[in-house]
Amino acid sequence: MATDPREGGLLEVEKQKVSPPPLYRVLLLNDDYTPMDFVVGVLQSFFGMTREQATQVMLKVHRDGMGVCGVFPKDVAATKVELVISFARQHQHPLQCVMEEV
């Protein structure tokens, strides 16, 4: 029969603080060639926005040069950026999508 070398001692659970992963903003950048309807479609398809939300973000991109599509953990943000850029290239649009740490 095995005995505990710390007889009579209590085992304590060591608690570790786990910080949430850093978040990243996904941004669309304005250009003079990508149609506004295409941008609205991208925002609806890849970021789950309603048509109204997507139109507001598209107008912000158009007016201010960039607009926030969403805030995500790094791997999700990177995937969304790649998907948007790939989709735009497939449709021969120069739409740029980038991410920045919050």
Q: Which helices and strands, and how do they pair?
A:
Blueprint: E1 23-29, H1 36-47, H2 51-64, E2 66-73, H3 74-90, E3 96-101
Antiparallel strand pairs: 1-2, 1-3
Helix pairs in contact: 1-2
Tell me what you see in this structure:
The structure is a single chain. With 102 residues, the protein is α+β, with helices and mostly antiparallel strands. Helices cover 42% and strands 21% of the residues. The chain contains three helices and three strands. The protein has helices at 36-47, 51-64, 74-90; strands at 23-29, 66-73, 96-101. The N and C termini lie far apart (56 Å).
Number-wise, the strands total 3
User: Outline, from the CA principal axes?
Assistant: elongated
Beta-strand portion reads 15-25%
Helix content: 40-55%
- Reading the helices and strands in chain order gives EHHEHE
| Unreliable runs | none
Main sheet: strand order: 2-1-3
Structural class assignment: alpha+beta
| Tally of DSSP helical segments | 3
Compute the separation of the termini in Å: 56 Å
* Average pLDDT rating: 92
Strand count, sense and barrel status of the largest sheet are: 3 strands, antiparallel
Radius of gyration: 23 Å
List keywords for this structure.
102 residues; alpha+beta; three-stranded antiparallel β-sheet; 42% helix; elongated
Summarize the structure.
By secondary structure, the protein is of the alpha+beta class. The chain has 3 helices and 3 strands. The N and C termini lie far apart (56 Å).
